[in-house]
Design brief:
With about 200 residues, this protein is an all-alpha fold. It has one domain. Helices cover about 75% and strands about 0% of the residues. α4 runs antiparallel to α7. The chain is globular, with a radius of gyration of 22 Å.
């Protein structure tokens, strides 16, 4: 009986199989920075488009409507996010991930259409977005380990990001800049449509 000879291709396949069997566990989002739970929450916000893009859309929407709308958004959004995050972390309650397209599509569409809203509607949108994302983030932080302190990190990052976004939109909206903001809104809405398509697959 002749000995079995393994060629170069066979050795490569064997090497890949061995390395794949000892690969470490991988997570979709970075939740541990090594700097503590608050920084883990900040990193989670910065690396999660489902949080970052709706916050940007709300900031632009409020900023394009003026400073009164912007002030409401930058205080109502983090407050609602914090309350819902505490509830989501303690009660371990979350909304389905399949709904993550809704804030992107709604807020991005409103920015793209340059829809005129009252201050009350802007406030309601900020509160609804904060409650929606806060529940999801509170649940994620409770499952991953950072818990309530991770939620505080997320809310801190969201407050700073929304404040900077609204300030830019309020200051830079004359002429072609307003059109540029609307293009940003259309891209965010398109991202929402893409997520909707994936959720219906």
């Amino acid at each position: 009986m002749k000995p079995l000879r393994v060629g170069a291709a066979g050795r490569r396949v064997a090497t890949v199989l061995v390395l794949a069997s000892v690969a470490p566990q991988v997570h979709a989002h970075l939740l541990e920075t090594g700097l503590g739970p608050v920084y883990d929450g900040i990193a989670h916000f910065a690396l999660t488009p489902e949080d970052l893009l709706p916050a940007l859309a709300l900031a632009v929407l409020a900023g394009l409507r003026g400073s009164d709308h912007a002030r409401r958004a930058i205080f109502v959004l983090p407050l609602a996010w914090l309350v819902a995050g505490f509830f989501g972390a303690s009660a371990k309650v979350s909304l389905p991930d399949s709904l993550s397209w809704a804030p992107l599509l709604v807020l991005g569409g409103l920015v793209a259409a340059d829809f005129r809203l009252s201050v009350t509607v802007t406030t309601a949108l900020a509160a609804a977005l904060g409650l929606f994302l806060g529940l999801a983030n509170g649940y994620a932080m409770a499952q991953a380990g950072p818990g309530i302190r991770g939620v505080v990190g997320i809310v801190s990052a969201a407050f700073i990001f929304t404040t900077l976004g609204t300030a830019c939109a309020v200051a830079w909206q004359s002429g072609w800049l307003r059109i540029a903001w609307r293009v940003v809104g259309s891209w965010i809405a398109a991202s929402g449509l893409l997520l909707l398509g994936w959720s219906l697959r």
